[in-house]
Amino acid sequence: MKKLGDLMMILDLHRQGVKIAAIARQVGIDRKTVRKYIGRGIEVPTYGPRQPRERLLDPHVEYLRARLDAYPGLSAQRLAREISERGYTGSYSTVRDTVRTMRPVGGGRAYAVRFETPPGQQAQVDFAQFRVRFADAPDRVQIVWLFSMVMGFSRLIWGRFALRQTMQTVLSCHRAAFEAIGGVPREILYDRMKTAVLGEDEDGRVIYNRTLAEFARHYGYLPKACRAYRPETKGKVERPFRYIREDFFLGGIFRDLDDLNAQFDHWLCTVANPRVHASTGRVVNEAFAEEMPTLQLLPLIPFGAVLKLERKISHDGMVSVDGNYYSVPDATRRRIVDVHSLADEIQIFEDDRLIARHPHLEGRRERSLLDGHRRRSRKKDDLPLPHGFTGQQVTRRSLDIYAAIGEQLAAAGASA
User: Which end of the chain has a smaller Cβ tally under 10 Å, C or N?
Assistant: First the structure.
């Protein structure tokens, strides 16, 4: 009963002697309700709040809260996938709205103007630092660097984690990225990292690393440096770093660097590149299918820039390059050898003759020992035997010889 007038009518009809069934028919309510209001009298009816119904998300709220307490940066999409694996069947929007209420409120900042590029025109490249405890070495925090290339039109992401930011890492990652996407964009936008940009001349023109400039010339693209202290000019590669950190990296368990890259490749293929991009509103892989035919063709010969070094062979038959050690054959005669550091391998020369080829080592103090290069230190048992020595065999002689020797020794002692 929502209106006070209906209650007054019930009480008035009851005072007139009208039966309860007739009152119920006239007012249009149940007879039990009529009896209830007659018993209450003139008291205005009150209604309590309804008991809230359990939502599909409610059994997973504590899990969401625990994950955000441990890793506040986890994305709502990542959390939605996780609870879907735990049995959640509701909508993503419910998860998104709930997660939004669990996050701390951030401060506002000025909006940046987004610019778009035509297909095949531009890619953006940068490195980002990550800290990880590998399962194979849980007591040590390892710094790893993510090289990421993002296509400007489609937003396709290609990336690889590495232990260092050397020029060899930069070149090998570029080469692997071009081979993976099947072509080369017409220009690449770089942050002012030392492996790409050395600085500016007195006229304000950017000075690029010579090796990178040669690499760009070989592959036919134009290197461009973003404006100093303006990270928004390369936002297409900056924002994915946050997306990668929140949706893939945080809370992950990785055995070693190879396992980290394998899981990352799987995530790119199954999550990042098949998704609908928030800015373009298109599926990334579908947009890249449109962009791929516009890329420049790969050169027939891979880039082969060489950094030539001279290195001294250590006592255990190794040469040091960038903090790692590479073996030489045991038959190497010279103590000083020439080392050529290429984009993807180390070549060692003796008198202009190639004597060893090693893949690049990513870390520090790692050793690459090729078959047949192990030097074995000699033990006492391995020393050469004197000429004519036949081991433990003793020549047999007659006992009369030893008796005669004894008599001579006795006579010599008596005469003394």
Answer: C
Amino acid at 23: I
C-alpha distances (whole Å) from 375 to each of 254, 371, 372 are 35, 11, 9
pTM of the model: 0.58
DSSP one-letter string for 93-115: HHHHHHHHHHSPPPPP-PPPPP-
What does the pLDDT read at residue 3?
66
Q: Which of 310, 307, 304, 353 is nearest to 335 (CA)?
A: 310
CB atoms within 10 A of CB 141: 10
- Which neighbouring-strand residues pair with 359? 345
CA terminus-to-terminus distance, the chain = 146
Number of residues that this document lists for the chain: 416
Mean pLDDT by 10 residues, the chain (416 residues): 68 80 83 81 61 82 87 87 91 90 59 70 92 93 94 95 86 92 94 68 69 89 73 54 91 94 96 92 96 94 74 90 89 88 84 90 84 60 47 55 65 60
Q: Alpha-carbon distance 286 to 151, whole Å?
A: 13
DSSP string, 272-320: ITTSBPTTT-SBHHHHHHHHGGGSBPPPSS-----EEEEEEPPTTSEEE
Find out whether 214 and 305 touch, Cβ atoms under 8 Å: yes
- How far is it, in rounded angstroms, from Cα 323 to Cα 51? 68
The token duo for 329 is 């054959």
Interatomic CA distance for residues 229 and 123, integer angstroms: 20
